[in-house]
Write a structure and sequence with these properties.
Elements lengths: L3 E4 L3 H12 L6 E4 L15 H4 L12 H6 L2 E4 L4 E5 L4 E4 L2 E4 L2 E4 L3 E3 L13 E2 L4 H7 L8 E5 L3 H12 L3 E6 L11 H13 L3 E4 L3 E5 L6 E4 L4 E3 L2 E4 L3 E3 L2 H5 L8 E2 L11 E3 L4 E5 L2 E3 L4 H15 L11 E6 L2 E7 L6 E8 L2 E8 L2 E8 L2 H13 L5 H5 L30
Parallel strand pairs: 1-2, 1-7, 2-3, 7-19, 9-16, 10-11, 10-16, 11-12, 18-20
Antiparallel strand pairs: 4-5, 5-6, 8-17, 13-14, 14-15, 20-21, 22-23, 23-26, 24-25, 25-26
Helix pairs in contact: 1-8
Length: 420
């Protein structure tokens, strides 16, 4: 019996393998990963691990004994180069691996600066893997001049770490404001002020024309005609789903590997899970980049592999830690037409996104109660008044009518990858 073969030993692949075993799947399970390490958490890489507050051992998703005890084979440091749908095999590290069920959980790659912009110079980094972060740690020394390209959550988290470690940090964002793609003006304003107060120089509406240097980056030529002397650079301009294997195998790709609501690809014998996937959601299709989605989606796919017929009902949630601020996000603000802000004090507030009369997302800044209330309202499709939201004299929980907890509600420690 060939069992389940999972391409990708990240959060989604590891969660799927563990869930399948917990559901009683008894055939072999093999996790194939390109990195030499057992499955580990990625979000802390740009936060606690980079700060030196989190050891390598604490990054691992499971104790080393877990995989052996549950008879899950970790085939690490191996790259899958081909999927053969006809023979139900994959080629990995020169070996032919047969499968009964194949799951593609390849995740995403960080976007790179092209070579002609200086992206291949020494000292130019991205933050995606443990090797990425280990490779830039030596540069994180007080007084070093760090340029961050991109004002999304990965860039802002790296800026916070740099500032805390005493670096001279400049962040450039080509669009008119940081977080423009993912957040309202109110959220952008808060984090701009936060970073400015911590010594980070933020340049908005300014792009990078080119990085220059002999073999290593020494300066950045900006779109406003100025130049910056830099010691190293972090590129944080988003991620792209890893779909090459799926495309080569003839699977449908649509902003990610196309799947139905149960996780099947266009080949019903092949599944896909996690942030490399686009799936049906609220009348359209969406691809999510978050730890919560990776876990929840992969566990639904595992249930269906072992004989279920469950449709994945995504309930998006994310988080980001910067300095002593925790941002928690519930829902997706896509298509919102109204934003209201609820302020508790200078360091605690929440931003609520409406589409018509429906609440679609909440950004909660140091306000876990607003996050939990907003999340439950969004998931239950409860109607609330925007006027009640902005009335700080009303307890935020008073907006929540009697809504039962969902069955098997997951304990959440919301985190963003970054969603980036």
């Amino acid at each position: 019996m060939s069992g389940i073969v999972v391409i990708g030993a990240g959060q989604a692949g590891a969660s799927l393998a563990a869930k399948a075993r917990m559901l009683g799947y008894s055939a072999p399970i093999t996790l194939i990963g390109e990195e030499p390490l057992a499955p580990y958490q990625r979000p802390p890489l740009s936060k606690g691990y980079l700060l030196g507050e989190l050891s390598l051992e604490r990054l691992f998703l499971r104790a080393p004994s877990f995989w052996k005890e549950h008879e899950i084979t970790l085939a690490l440091d191996r790259r899958v180069t081909a999927i053969d749908r006809a023979s139900c095999t994959v080629t990995a590290g020169g070996d032919i691996v047969p499968f009964d069920h194949l799951v593609v959980a390849t995740g995403s790659n960080a976007r790179q600066l092209p070579q002609e912009m200086g992206g291949t110079l020494g000292g130019v980094h991205t933050i995606r893997t443990l090797a990425d972060v280990d490779g830039l740690m030596a540069d994180f020394r007080p007084g070093r001049r760090l340029l961050i390209i991109g004002g999304g959550y990965i860039g802002l988290e790296a800026a916070a770490v740099g500032a805390k470690l005493g670096l001279e940090v400049t962040l450039v964002e080509a669009t008119p404001r940081i977080l423009q793609r993912v957040a309202a003006v109110e959220t952008s304003n808060f984090f701009r002020d936060l970073h400015s107060a911590n010594g980070v120089s933020i340049l908005e509406g300014v792009g990078v024309d080119r990085l220059v240097g002999e073999n290593r980056v020494a300066a950045a030529l900006l779109s406003n005609g100025t130049s910056l002397t830099v010691d190293f650079v972090i590129v944080g301009v988003g991620v792209v789903p890893r779909t090459r294997l799926a495309e080569q195998a003839g699977l449908a790709v649509e902003n990610g590997i196309w799947t139905d609501a149960q996780g099947r690809t266009s080949d019903p014998s092949i599944w896909a899970a996690g942030e490399c996937v686009s799936f049906p959601w609220e009348g359209g299709r969406v691809r999510l980049e978050s730890v919560g989605h990776a876990i929840e989606h992969s566990e639904v796919v595992a249930e269906n592999i072992v004989g279920g017929s469950k449709a994945y009902d995504a309930k998006p949630w994310f988080w980001s830690d910067q300095y002593d601020v925790k941002l928690q996000i519930a829902g997706l603000n896509t298509g919102h037409d109204r934003v209201v802000e609820r302020r508790n004090n200078n360091s605690s507030r929440s931003i609520w996104y409406f589409r018509g009369n429906r609440l679609v997302a909440v950004d909660a800044i140091n306000d876990p109660r607003a996050y939990m209330v907003g999340k439950r309202i969004i998931e239950s499709h409860q109607t609330i008044s925007a006027n009640d939201v902005v009335d700080a004299s009303k307890d935020v929980t008073s907006m929540l009518t009697s809504v039962p907890d969902p069955p098997n509600r997951r304990a959440e420690t919301p985190e963003l990858t970054n969603t980036g």
